[in-house]
Amino acid sequence: MQQESKKIDFKSTVVDKKACSITLDIEVSPETAQNEVNAAFESLQRQARLDGFRQGKAPINMVKEKFSHEAKDKVVENIIKGTVFDALSKEKFLPMEFPAIENVEFEIGQALKYRFTAECHPSFDIKDYKGIPIKKEIFKVTDASLNQSLDALRERNAKLVPSEKGIVGGGSFVCVDYEAFDKDIALPDVTAKNHMLDLGSENTVKGFKEALKGAKTGDEKDAKIEYPADYPNKALAGKTITFKTKVLEIKEKELPALNDDFAKDMGTENLEDLKSKVKEAVESEEKRRQDMEVEKQVVEYLVDKNKFDVPRSLVAHQREKLIERMKEYMQKQGAPKDYIEKQAELGREKFKEEAEKNVRLSYILNTIYSNEKLEVTDHDLEEEKNKMKASNSGRDEAVEKYFAEHKANISLSLKETKLFKFLLDNANIKEEVKDMPLKDK
Question: What's the whole-model pTM score?
Answer without folding.
Answer: 0.77
